[in-house]
Amino acid sequence: MVALGGKLYVIGGFDAKTEMSAAVEVFDPGAGTWSTAAPLPNALHHANAAAVDGKLYVVGALGASFRALSISIAYDPATNAWTPRASLPLGAERGASGVAVVGTKIYVAGGLRGGAVALFSAYDTTTDTWEDLPAIPAPSDHLVAGAVGTTVYLIGGRQAVITSHTARVDAYDTLTRRWSTRAPMPTSRGGAAAAVVGARVVVAGGEGDTSRPSGVFDQVESYEPATDRWTQLAPMRSPRHGTGAAAIGGKMYVPGGADQQAFGAVATFEVFTP
Predict the structure, then answer these.
(1) Which of these, 61, 154, 236, 255, could form a disulfide with 269 (CB 3.0-4.6 Å)?
(2) pTM here?
(3) What integer is the mean pLDDT of 95-103?
(4) Would you state the pLDDT for residue 85?
């Protein structure tokens, strides 16, 4: 899920039959309408996606049997076409990572490649090059990430097993290139959706809730980097995991996902005003 040019792009994933999709669907909040963009070159899921300077990027993903892919491609809305970019380096391919953007660089943290990894990389969209960075403090996949200013925040996640989730929050200063630990998220979880709304990172849903038959969290919590504090917000009306989120105009959009732990795709689409 990526916001680009005032529109929301939903990229790949699984359908209700648990089959992988190459579809790219676009929602225009102003018009309240859906349309389709050029599909991905191949069906994939758990894509590491971001928007930089008017283009959409997929930098790593998962494919059949959850195999880690090194795919790196860019989509230009002006031409409605995908073009190849420099692939993730050998041994660094992965999906289900935390992704954040600072300037023209896309930061890809952790992810899944057989198991959770601690890799941390930066892709420079202007030079089409990759750079290895100091590893994240703990291996993690299905985590969320967001950048506020020049700092990247990694939140939650797990180590391959759904119920192995964590509440930890780590911050990476892109100027000093150093990691620090921040206040943990009140609700430990992985597979959540998150978006930067103003100067806050809002985290919604997730899976691994052993207290519910669905295994899905409904908690929505907001992190404010300036004070290193968390705030509990109104819970999700339709608890979900396995989706993404993006913010436009101070609102957080959360499409699809699953309402049951693991698989269970739904077409639910909700917007939240923090």
Answers:
(1) 255
(2) 0.97
(3) 98
(4) 98
> 3, 52 in Cβ contact below 8 A?
no
Torsion-angle region of 8 (φ positive above 0: left; ψ -120 to 50: alpha; else: beta): beta
Percent of the chain with pLDDT over 70: 100
Q: What is the 3-state secondary structure (H, E, C) of 105-166?
A: EEEEECCEECEEECCEEEEECCCCEEEECCCCCCCEECCEEEEECCEEEEECCECCCCCCCC
User: pLDDT tens, 117-134?
Assistant: 999 999 999 999 999 999
Burial of 214 (0-12, 13-18, 19+ CB in 10 A): middle
Cα–Cα dist 54/9, whole Å: 13
How far CA 250 is from CA of 111, 196, 202, 208, 247, in Å, comes to 28, 9, 11, 29, 6
Distance CA 116, CA 46 (A): 14
CA 16 to chain centre: 20
Q: Which residue has the tokens 């509990």?
A: 232
Token look-up 């669907």 returns 25
Amino acid at 32: G
Output the six-digit token pair for 145. Answer: 């990430």
Q: Is 6 exposed, middle or buried (0-12, 13-18, 19+ CB in 10 A)?
A: exposed
